[in-house]
Amino acid sequence: MVENQEILIDKYITYLKIEKGYSQNTFYAYYKDLKFFLNYLQQENKNFFSITSLSVQEFLSSLTALNLSAKTRARFYSSIKGFYKFLYRNSEINEFPFKDIEYPFVRRKLPEFLTKDEINKMLGVKFKNNFEGIRNNAFIELLYASGLRISEIASVKLENFNFEINFVKVIGKGSKERIVPFNTSAAKYIKEYLKEREKIERGIGNYLFVTKKGRPITRQGLWKIIKKIAVKSGIDKNITPHTIRHTFATHLLEGGADLRSIQQMLGHSNISTTEIYTHTDITHLKEQHLKYHPRNIKEEK
């Protein structure tokens, strides 16, 4: 019985991978959630075919007892509900156990971003004038210039760049291809880095950012570079690659870019995901109003 259930998990993961085009990180997270759920059912002497709406609610309650975050619990809910939709559509089960369950919406946090002074401090960090130093400066310039996800930058290749018009072609979530512009400053740093890159031994593939041995840098490696730059810049914030992505979008919006263009550059499939930046911009506008409106200034005196 257990083997049959694991086969169903494998079928679902294959469906997510091939038909839905989910990234490896996404379908692996779903796989881990479903294995965890299967283990829970075994301990309760249940299986995928015997659960009811009550069984699902009991499982979700057990996640709360484990002190898991609301975001993690919501992901479990989404993973398992998607799996049961798949089973129901393929006639593996007769009843859909989620039809009477509504899970609380997880309130989306406003994205953290850097001010223009802070990002300029990071861009101003200079490393030694060697391969790694020149590469690190090119990386942070491209990250802020394009707003790419860290996984997209890790996988981008030389042939994806067009330096005549400063565009890069990337494959984002759901294996969706998009074209993203970058500025002349980033182009300048990348070209300087490419001169150094030509001097090292050839590695596997034609990836843009590589180690001194020519191997592609992992997402974790790029994450460490961001942490190193953050420390050198002296900014007292928890800065991640996604912070720079949020900064890119927020500064574009503050500068007058329209939301639809920002959506396309970020690779958001739904504009509601991009709309969260409007809340950040409203906060900025309020701060500017309080600081510069004559009536506010008079009241402070």
TrEMBL record:
Domain Tyr recombinase intervals: 109-290
Keyword list, A-Z: Cell cycle, Cell division, Chromosome partition, Cytoplasm, DNA integration, DNA recombination, DNA-binding
GO BP, sorted A to Z: cell division; chromosome segregation; DNA transposition
Active site: 149, 173, 242, 245, 268, 277
Gene Ontology molecular function: DNA binding; tyrosine-based site-specific recombinase activity
Residue ranges of every copy of the Core-binding (CB) domain listed in the record: 3-88
Entries under InterPro entries matching the protein: CB, DNA_brk_join_enz, Integrase-like_cat_sf, Integrase_catalytic, Integrase_recombinase_N, Integrase_SAM-like_N, Recomb_XerD, Tyrosine_recombinase_XerC/XerD
Principal location listed in the UniProt entry: cytoplasm
Compartments where located: Cytoplasm
Similarity section: Belongs to the 'phage' integrase family. XerD subfamily.
Known partners and oligomeric status: Forms a cyclic heterotetrameric complex composed of two molecules of XerC and two molecules of XerD.
Free-text function comment from the UniProt entry: Site-specific tyrosine recombinase, which acts by catalyzing the cutting and rejoining of the recombining DNA molecules. The XerC-XerD complex is essential to convert dimers of the bacterial chromosome into monomers to permit their segregation at cell division. It also contributes to the segregational stability of plasmids.
Protein's name in the database: Tyrosine recombinase XerC
Species, as recorded: Candidatus Acididesulfobacter diazotrophicus
Lineage of origin: Bacteria, Deltaproteobacteria, Candidatus Acidulodesulfobacterales, Candidatus Acididesulfobacter
Gene responsible for this protein: xerD
